[in-house]
Amino acid sequence: MVMKDRKSKRYPSSEAPSGLYTSNEAGGILFRKTFIQTITVLIIVLLALLAGKMIYILLLFFAGIMLSVLLNFIGMQFMRIRWVPHWLAITLALIILTIAVVLIIIMVVPLLADKIEPFVSQLEKSILKLKTWLEGNEGGRFLLMQVFGPEDKETNGELLTKVTTIFSTTFGALTGVIIVFVVGIFLAYSPGLYKSGFLHLFPVNHRDRAVEVITEIGIILRWWLLGQLISMMVLSITTWIMLALLKVPMAPLLALLTGLLTFIPYLGPLIALVPIILMAFLESPLLAMYVFILYMLIQNIEANVLMPIIFHRTVHIPPAIGVISQILFGSLIGFLGFVLAIPLTAVVLQFVKMVYVEDVLGDNNVDNAPQKA
Fold first, then answer.
1. d(CA 286, CA 247)
2. Is the pTM of this model over 0.90?
3. Which helix (H) or strand (E) holds 329?
């Protein structure tokens, strides 16, 4: 009691010491607002940095889901036989997929070993020929300057940086492939376990609808994968026939490259067109023009005739939205985002259609809505 009286005499209530944070004066209020805003911004930046790392991991997980969908689709064909259990069907699917990959490697590696060095040499010659042709006129020189800029010699430090970047990128890619395979195999063997665990995140009265959404998304991914595999084979074969008939150098390797890049819709076939045009240009500019016309004709037939038949069970993605999503995911996440942009967009569109348009807005006729030209 005595200590309290002494303290009150030394510091009257109106003059009690207070920090800047607890002060009710204008300076204290401003300090508190600034402090809280600064902490909020730092938390947002930290969450954004964590989200940037998490997005890549989530994309690897999404790729693993796609692999599990493919394994389950192959396994379902074996499960039509009554005595084949789920684990055996997935094992057989995994064996078939492994054999297919090994056979492709056995067929492709000798082709690459024999053709890759001449291919690179021919590609360099065609680029040099194209560059010489462009340098022959003012417009071509301006285009070269805009695309490549002034020629600078690389220093040893820059070369070492490029080598280090290539090594780290390769290591990261191998790690990503391992993660995708591990996630895909675990999900394929025990889909019910992970599905039931995921459903527990939803309220009980909404779980039946969640099952419908998840099932429909699985069907979309299954048909998208099947359609892309068929498209890859068709475009690879037709491109090889076209290039062989026109006698374009390295036709098998160029057709193989086209088939692999076709897995990336819209932009993938356009990327594959670049080396094809360069190889044809090495023979003559006229041949390059013929190749371009026939290649675009094949692409249009495949896009307007074959793909609507294959993709009738999946979400229709307008080309503009598909390209924008590829550019967006590619610029934000990198190559993996560029590759998975289309299936991820298809999943998002289906989710929005079923959860928001149908359940929230109550519009159940979105599939039957008239399309205006």
1. 13
2. no
3. helix 319-333
Residue 7 lies in a domain: no
Q: What are the pLDDT digits (tens) for 31-41? A: 666 767 678 77
Domain containing residue 135:
46-148+177-366
Structural domain contains residue 17:
no
Count of domains observed in the chain: 1
Cα distances from 80 to residues 74, 89, 98, in angstroms, run 11, 10, 22
Within a domain: 330: yes
Closest to 118 measured CA to CA, from 306, 279, 244: 279
Contacts of 211 (CB under 8 A, 6+ apart): 199
pLDDT at 370: 45
DSSP per-residue letters across 144-155: HHHHH-S--PPP
**Cα 335 from chain centre:** 7
For 246-258, write each residue's pLDDT tens digit.
888 888 888 888 8
Residue 95: per-residue pLDDT = 93
